[in-house]
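Sanity check

After download, print the first record. It should look like this:
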Amino acid sequence: MAWSGTDVCQGLAPGPQGAKRTEAWHAHAMTEVPKPVRERLALLPDHIRFQHGQRRYVAIHGGAQRRTALLWRTLGDEVFRAEIEALRSQHGNFDGVICGHSGLPFERQIDGVRWINVGAAGLPANDGTQSTRFVTLETNGQAITHRLAYDHHAARKSMIDAGLVQGHHDTILTGVWPAQLKLPPALR
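Expected structure tokens:
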């Protein structure tokens, strides 16, 4: 989705440590992602509509009302209803929403709309394993969550070499997020 290089992940890791992590990642991205690429990313839409088989989907980053929203599976249906209504006001009817940002994959049904969170391909899902997650939509419409194994030792070394040592470099090895208190209790 659109990225101008000035976006911050509000709510991703609140508090002083979270702010340090966000600032470090932002500074790193501003250095490593060339300006023409950032400019191109800034032109991308916040929402993407597509059809898969007979079903219509809207893909978003985090939330419809705030792209950096953290929408956990433990939130009440009313939160998801508000997000769905915000999307419907822009896109009309659809059958499903595909999002990420919170890093923890899940699927829910809210009033006949599928809400599919794909997890994060770049961060373990806070479950004590090093693997990350991604989701594929199969031809029959089923959403399959896959584990992605990678050289986590090399990834951690790259993070350390880049100065990204605000906690997620340890997550790569432990599979546990540094800001546990910021997660809903059921997800810690």
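If your output differs, re-run the checksum step. Summary of this record's structure: Residues 75 and 184 are 9 Å apart (CA to CA).
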